[in-house]
Amino acid sequence: MTAYALAHLRPAAPHPEVFAYIEKIQPTLDPFGGHFLVHGSEAEVREGTWPGSVVVIAFPDLARARDWYDSPAYKEILPLRTRHIDADVVLVPGVPDGYDPAVTAAKLRAAAG
Protein backbone atom coordinates (compact mmCIF):
# COMPACT_ATOMS: atom_id res chain seq x y z
CA MET A 1 0.00 0.00 0.00
CA THR A 2 1.38 3.40 -0.96
CA ALA A 3 2.81 5.49 1.87
CA TYR A 4 3.71 9.14 2.02
CA ALA A 5 6.30 11.40 3.58
CA LEU A 6 4.64 14.73 4.35
CA ALA A 7 6.52 17.84 5.35
CA HIS A 8 5.25 21.21 6.49
CA LEU A 9 8.18 23.56 5.98
CA ARG A 10 8.14 26.91 7.75
CA PRO A 11 9.31 29.99 5.86
CA ALA A 12 13.03 30.56 5.89
CA ALA A 13 15.52 32.78 4.12
CA PRO A 14 17.10 31.12 1.09
CA HIS A 15 20.43 29.47 1.89
CA PRO A 16 23.01 27.71 -0.31
CA GLU A 17 22.81 24.57 1.86
CA VAL A 18 19.05 24.32 1.21
CA PHE A 19 19.70 24.56 -2.53
CA ALA A 20 22.29 21.77 -2.20
CA TYR A 21 19.77 19.63 -0.25
CA ILE A 22 17.19 20.05 -3.02
CA GLU A 23 19.77 19.15 -5.66
CA LYS A 24 20.84 16.01 -3.77
CA ILE A 25 17.54 14.57 -2.51
CA GLN A 26 16.31 12.67 -5.59
CA PRO A 27 19.22 10.16 -5.62
CA THR A 28 18.36 9.33 -1.98
CA LEU A 29 14.75 8.58 -2.98
CA ASP A 30 15.44 6.48 -6.07
CA PRO A 31 16.55 3.24 -4.32
CA PHE A 32 13.30 3.26 -2.30
CA GLY A 33 10.90 4.07 -5.14
CA GLY A 34 10.20 7.54 -3.77
CA HIS A 35 8.94 10.35 -5.97
CA PHE A 36 7.60 13.83 -5.39
CA LEU A 37 3.88 14.49 -5.64
CA VAL A 38 4.14 18.01 -4.19
CA HIS A 39 7.39 19.93 -3.73
CA GLY A 40 7.52 23.24 -1.94
CA SER A 41 4.07 24.37 -2.99
CA GLU A 42 2.32 27.09 -1.07
CA ALA A 43 -0.88 25.80 0.49
CA GLU A 44 -4.27 27.36 -0.18
CA VAL A 45 -5.45 27.50 3.42
CA ARG A 46 -9.16 26.78 3.90
CA GLU A 47 -9.15 26.10 7.65
CA GLY A 48 -6.72 27.14 10.35
CA THR A 49 -3.30 28.52 9.55
CA TRP A 50 -0.45 27.10 7.51
CA PRO A 51 2.61 29.29 7.29
CA GLY A 52 5.12 27.85 4.86
CA SER A 53 5.07 25.23 2.16
CA VAL A 54 4.18 21.58 1.63
CA VAL A 55 6.14 18.57 0.41
CA VAL A 56 4.55 15.18 -0.35
CA ILE A 57 6.69 12.22 -1.42
CA ALA A 58 5.10 8.89 -2.36
CA PHE A 59 6.68 5.49 -1.67
CA PRO A 60 5.53 1.99 -2.59
CA ASP A 61 4.94 1.19 1.10
CA LEU A 62 5.62 2.39 4.63
CA ALA A 63 8.68 0.15 5.06
CA ARG A 64 10.41 1.79 2.12
CA ALA A 65 9.48 5.27 3.36
CA ARG A 66 11.06 4.43 6.72
CA ASP A 67 14.10 2.89 5.06
CA TRP A 68 14.60 6.05 2.97
CA TYR A 69 14.33 8.40 5.95
CA ASP A 70 16.75 6.25 7.97
CA SER A 71 19.16 5.64 5.07
CA PRO A 72 22.77 6.80 5.34
CA ALA A 73 22.39 8.75 2.08
CA TYR A 74 19.45 10.77 3.38
CA LYS A 75 20.93 11.20 6.86
CA GLU A 76 24.01 12.69 5.19
CA ILE A 77 22.08 15.50 3.46
CA LEU A 78 19.35 16.06 6.06
CA PRO A 79 21.33 18.64 8.08
CA LEU A 80 21.55 20.82 4.96
CA ARG A 81 17.81 21.42 5.42
CA THR A 82 17.37 21.15 9.18
CA ARG A 83 20.00 23.79 9.92
CA HIS A 84 17.91 26.36 8.02
CA ILE A 85 14.25 25.30 7.84
CA ASP A 86 11.93 24.36 10.69
CA ALA A 87 9.62 21.54 9.70
CA ASP A 88 7.19 18.88 10.79
CA VAL A 89 7.77 15.62 8.90
CA VAL A 90 5.56 12.54 9.14
CA LEU A 91 5.37 9.18 7.38
CA VAL A 92 1.83 7.91 6.83
CA PRO A 93 0.32 4.88 5.13
CA GLY A 94 -2.21 5.48 2.39
CA VAL A 95 -5.53 3.70 2.05
CA PRO A 96 -5.97 0.52 -0.01
CA ASP A 97 -7.55 0.49 -3.45
CA GLY A 98 -11.31 0.51 -3.14
CA TYR A 99 -11.26 2.23 0.26
CA ASP A 100 -14.75 3.16 1.42
CA PRO A 101 -14.94 5.79 4.17
CA ALA A 102 -18.50 4.66 4.99
CA VAL A 103 -17.08 1.31 6.15
CA THR A 104 -14.68 3.16 8.45
CA ALA A 105 -17.57 5.26 9.79
CA ALA A 106 -19.59 2.11 10.50
CA LYS A 107 -16.66 0.56 12.41
CA LEU A 108 -16.17 3.74 14.43
CA ARG A 109 -19.90 3.94 15.16
CA ALA A 110 -19.96 0.30 16.33
CA ALA A 111 -16.90 0.80 18.52
CA ALA A 112 -18.41 3.94 20.09
CA GLY A 113 -21.40 1.88 21.22
Automatic annotation (TrEMBL):
InterPro entries: Dimeric_a/b-barrel, DUF1330
Domain of life: Bacteria
Family annotation (Pfam families): DUF1330
Species of origin: Streptomyces decoyicus
Protein name listed in UniProt: DUF1330 domain-containing protein
Ranges of residues in domain DUF1330: 2-95
